[in-house]
Every structure is written in C-alpha cells, then in structure tokens.
Amino acid sequence: MLRTKNRIHLVRNGMLAIALLSVCGMPASSEEVASKPKVRGAILAANDVTDGRLQELGEEGFNSVVLLVEGNAEEQVSARQGAAKRINSSSLGLCYWIEVARCPELADAHPAWMASLQTHDEWRRLYPDAPKPTADQVMKTYPWVPILSREPFTAQLNRIEKLLAEMPPPAAVYLNDLQGAPSACGCGNTLCRWTSDYGKRRTTVPLGDDAATLFVEAVKKVVPNSEVIPVWTTECEKHDGATDGQCAGVGCYDGICWKAYVKQLAPLAQANKHIGALAPYRAFKRDLPIYGEPCGWIRFVVESFAEMPKRHGADGIDASRLTLVLQGWDVGADDVAKQISVATESGVSGYVVAFTEIQQDWKPKLIHWR
Asked: Class of 38-368 per CATH?
C-alpha cells in the first residue's frame, strides 16, 4: 500500500480520494492505527463489483464492500451472487445494503400501503401542479412503503427474506429507511420522516414506536450469524423552519418531529450496539455556509445522535457506536476524502461510502382510500 504524508492518492476512476496519514515507506504509528475507523466500507451495485475495483478499494484502505441487494429478477439474483463470490475471494469483507421503505415493487403492487401526505400542504411548492384530493382520495408519497404499519411490515420482511435467500452469509446487513417517508407531516423536508400517516385518511393499521426495533429483530432471525445494522436519518434543524427553509415555515423542529423521532430511536438504540447514520450531505441539500465547511453537516449528524435524544428524555448515542454513510456519487475525489476526514475526526466507529446512489426522492400520487 502506498503511504505518503498529507497527500491524496487518486484512484484511477477519479471517484475516490483518501488522505493517507503515514510517512512514505514507514508503518503508521499506533496512535494513527487506533484513530482509524474500524469499519471502512464501500457501497457498490453488483455490476460495479469487478476484480479491478476490489483491488483498488483494498489499496485505498477500505476493508469491506457493502453490496446493494435489490430485485428478484433472475438476472439480478445472478449478478449479486457473482458479485458476492468475487468479494469473498478478495481481501475485503462482505456486507449487504437493503433499501426498506423506498420500494417501487410494493408501492406498485399495493398503493394503499404507501405513506401519505396530509395535514400540511407546504410540500406543494415542490409539486405546484399536483391535484387536490377529493373526499374519497388521499395523496400518497410514491414509492415509499414504510414498516410503521402492519401490512407493509410483514410484506417488507418477506421481501428481505427472499432477497437474502441463496446468498452467502455476510458480516453485516445494513437496513436503510426504517422510518417514515420524506415530508412526513407535509412540510416538504426530505429529512422529516417520523411518520407514515399524519392525518385521518388511513389505509393501513399503524404500529407502535418500536416498529423499527421489532423489524430489525425479525431480520436478525433471517441472518442469525450476521450483524444487522439499522440505518437512521436525522431530523430537521431550527433554521429549516424559516419560510425559505426546507420546512417552509412549518414549526417541525419545535413540534412533534424530534419527539416522535426519539421515541422510535430509543428502543432501537437499546437493542443494537451499532447504528448507521445516513449522511449524504449534498443529496440532502446540506452543503450550506452555516456548517462552516462544505461537508460540515456531517458533524451535526454525529452531534444530533448524542444530544437530541437527551433533550427528549432518552439516552444519547455516542459517536463510537455510529457508522456514517457518506456520499460517493455525484461528487469529486477531493470531496469524498474530506467527508472521510470529517467522519474520522468525529470519532465514529466507521464509515461506508456510497458509490452507488442511495435514492431518497419521492413524488405525490393520488389513490382512493375508502
């Protein structure tokens, strides 16, 4: 492995740059080794898992590949089986990444199971041409099917069991989007996702605040020899409540959002040693001057897990329990290197860089609810 002090080694594909800390030709000091995050993963789609790419990642200090597991078409199953085999034949560990709530497959098959957009209409600034629902209709958030209700909970669990069938056992399975859908209250903020139905027009049977915890426990039974890591998204911030902010004047920060967030996160944190924290700062439009540096929002994410639960009657989650999910798509090599540097400085247990896009978009869709 090439070692240079305060230099950036660029991978041939131009996507990644990692700051290497040891002197050329000399081993890293014990302090440097101790401060290095234990988990250093790269999220890849099956088609991107080539022998050459795996070698590059190993040379750059990654120790695991988090394989995106999606779709049950024959060619998809074959592709991920081949990718898993190549990873297991490399020097890198094998992990899986599964999107839960954002699921076009279930949204198309069961539109009534999707999260809804009710109460607040501020989201309409994003979709000004969206129609108004009649008394027999409800606006849904396509294609988000959260596990916060009974029907999708069971269907999502069955889907994941099928996705993992005939796959080699991984070291860990990352479950993303165990919360509600973006713009949960209707404010339009992608980070506002504490509920799936903030309104009276229900098309599913709601579950309790421990839904995510129960779901993770159920998945653990599917992969008993692997760690299951829930990936959580932080909530809004005070400045989002400005009329030109992400919440567009809705008082989410001081309202129910963080309170409900903590009620769902607290039992999950008690049942799981490690928590993933979704932090693609550019995708979430958090590359703002108020954070002091382009990816400074990553520091806020870490701090929010430590501080916000304590403000609402629960125990804080220390940085040493967090694995940050960083943005590796649609950014440059220097950007990735800076994110890794900030994550490392924050004292987290690990990071995974998503080189394949983690889709978080949504659009309104009317359905009949009665």
From this structure: alpha beta
* Cβ density class 263-297: b for 16+ within 10 Å, e for less: bbbbbbbeebebbbbbbbbbbbebbeeeeeebbbb
Residue tagged 């999707």 (tokens)? 114
pLDDT at 110: 97
- Residues facing 277 on adjacent strands: 232, 324
pTM score over 0.85: yes
CB atoms inside a 10 Å sphere around CB 170: 26
**Torsion sign (Cα): 2, 49, 224, 196:** positive
**Which residue from 196, 167, 168 is spatially nearest to 182, judged by alpha carbons?**
196
CB atoms within 10 A of CB 357: 16
The pair of structure tokens assigned to 232 is 């959580």
Distance CA 259, CA 108 (A): 32
Q: How far apart are CA 91 and CA 83, in angstroms?
A: 14
Per the CB < 8 A criterion, the answer to whether 143 and 108 are in contact is yes
Q: What would the pLDDT profile of 82-123 be if each residue is shown by its tens digit?
A: 999 999 999 999 999 999 999 999 999 999 999 999 999 999
- Per-residue pLDDT at 36: 81
Contacts of 242 (CB under 8 A, 6+ apart): 249
Which phi-psi region, left, alpha or beta, contains residue 148 (left: φ > 0; alpha: ψ -120 to 50)?
alpha
Of 12, 11, 9, nearest to 22 by C-alpha is 9
Q: Which of 107, 101, 96 is nearest to 45 (CA)?
A: 96
Sign of CA dihedral 363, 323, 285, 333: negative
Pairing of strands 7-10, 17-20: antiparallel
State residue 277's pLDDT score: 98
Q: What whole-number distance in Å separates Cα of residue 363 and Cα of residue 275?
A: 28
Whether the per-residue pLDDT at 13 is higher than 70: the answer is no
Please state the φ and ψ torsions of residue 289, each to the nearest 5 degrees. -60, -25
User: Any idea where the domains of the chain sit in the sequence?
Assistant: 38-368
